């Protein structure tokens, strides 16, 4: 439509000149318009003032706006009725509804998101695929080398290797790989009086000794003598053989005397090798106090008992041994890993060697 060169207020002022007594011909010549145009203006704007015309224009604008709103709401309502079969709950369903309304009914993203009740940022969100392969490789490598360790041992070993993965992320991958170790629930025993466990304040103050036994693939049994420093839980010696009498215990202590020195006290249970006269005489000759725990009270020798549990779970139950040579080889590897790499919760997740440095 061709736009007039006169505004509506100018047209009304031109029409008012006729009411003031001027002739139509003179008015048309003055403003360069035809008489037909003048009478068309008079039919459309005759009798109106400028304020009334402005009010009419406002009403027309408002009416047009309301029509557009009604059309938009009607479109959104139709799209919702078409898209919704039941009340949407998850954001995934709501995003699908927005996509459907846009494609089928050509509703804008803003209107669609507002109608289904989600932010536009939620609709535009693109999920980033998780790359857990480095964690999977690290966990599988650890559990293959140490089959019996649990989650926290894996986590702190990974931290010691320099990985800074969040423990929740590592645990999610750990459980997804089904690496959880099933453990039997502890039996509830009645409370018993416990003897206070001596807490050493420096190395070579208290050592703890204890025996373990297991069998080879052919059924032949063997024994293990474990020696631990109670100060930093360092494994000092693991002697392995089919028979370990009191003289063999003394030989192990003599070897430790040459390489490390002797402690002030040795804590043992009431086994026949430890209550022998030979070991008692050797301790007296070397000014070492031999401390015996109460019968049936293994918690009074808790440090070495805890070590025995780790050896049983992580070493003896994890491998099948055919010869004593294989046992001694694996024991040596495990002992080095225990002292240098294995973090201990009671030591603030430090290794025994790190406590000494």
TrEMBL record:
Molecular functions (GO terms): DNA binding; transposase activity
Domain of life: Bacteria
PROSITE patterns in UniProt: INTEGRASE
Keyword Membrane belongs to the record: no
SUPFAM superfamilies, per database record: Homeodomain-like, Ribonuclease H-like
One of the GO BP terms on file: DNA transposition
Record-linked InterPro entries: Homeodomain-like_sf (IPR009057), Integrase_cat-core (IPR001584), RNaseH-like_sf (IPR012337), RNaseH_sf (IPR036397), Transpos_IS3 (IPR048020), Transposase_8 (IPR002514)
Domain Integrase catalytic: 199-357
Keyword Coiled coil part of the UniProt annotation: yes
Keywords: Coiled coil
NCBIfam families found in the cross-reference section: transpos_IS3
Descriptive protein name: IS3 family transposase
Organism (species): Fodinibius salipaludis
């Amino acid at each position: 439509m061709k736009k007039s060169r006169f505004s509506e207020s100018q047209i009304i002022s031109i029409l008012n000149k006729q009411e003031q007594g001027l002739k139509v011909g003179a008015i048309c010549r003055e403003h360069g318009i035809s008489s037909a145009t003048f009478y068309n203006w008079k039919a459309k704007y005759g009798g109106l003032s400028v304020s009334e015309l402005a009010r009419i224009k406002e009403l027309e604008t408002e009416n047009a706006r309301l029509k557009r709103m009604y059309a938009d709401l009607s479109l959104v309502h139709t799209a919702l009725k078409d898209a919704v079969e039941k009340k949407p709950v998850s954001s995934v369903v709501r995003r699908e509804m927005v996509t459907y309304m846009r494609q089928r009914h050509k509703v804008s993203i803003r209107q669609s998101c507002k109608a289904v009740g989600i932010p536009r940022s939620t609709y535009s969100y693109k999920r980033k695929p998780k790359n857990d392969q480095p964690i999977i490789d690290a966990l599988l490598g650890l559990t293959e080398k140490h089959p019996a360790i649990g989650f926290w041992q894996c986590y702190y070993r990974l931290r010691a290797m320099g990985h800074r993965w969040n423990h929740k992320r590592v645990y999610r991958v750990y459980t997804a790989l089904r690496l959880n170790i099933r453990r039997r629930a502890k039996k509830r025993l009645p409370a018993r009086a416990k003897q206070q466990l001596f807490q050493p304040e420096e190395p070579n103050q208290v050592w703890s000794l204890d025996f373990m036994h297991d069998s080879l693939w052919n059924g032949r049994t063997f024994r293990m003598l474990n020696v631990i420093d109670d100060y930093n839980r360092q494994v000092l010696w693991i002697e392995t053989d089919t028979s370990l009498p009191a003289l063999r215990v003394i030989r192990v202590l003599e070897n430790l005397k040459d390489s490390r020195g002797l402690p002030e006290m040795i804590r043992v249970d009431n086994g026949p090798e430890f209550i022998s006269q030979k070991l008692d005489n050797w301790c007296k000759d070397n000014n070492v106090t031999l401390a015996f725990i109460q019968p049936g009270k293994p918690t009074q020798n808790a440090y070495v008992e805890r070590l025995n549990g780790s050896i049983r779970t992580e070493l003896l139950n994890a491998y099948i041994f055919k010869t004593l040579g294989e046992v001694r080889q694996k024991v040596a590897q495990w002992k080095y890993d225990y002292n240098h790499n294995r973090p201990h919760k009671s030591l603030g997740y430090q290794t025994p060697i790190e406590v000494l440095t």
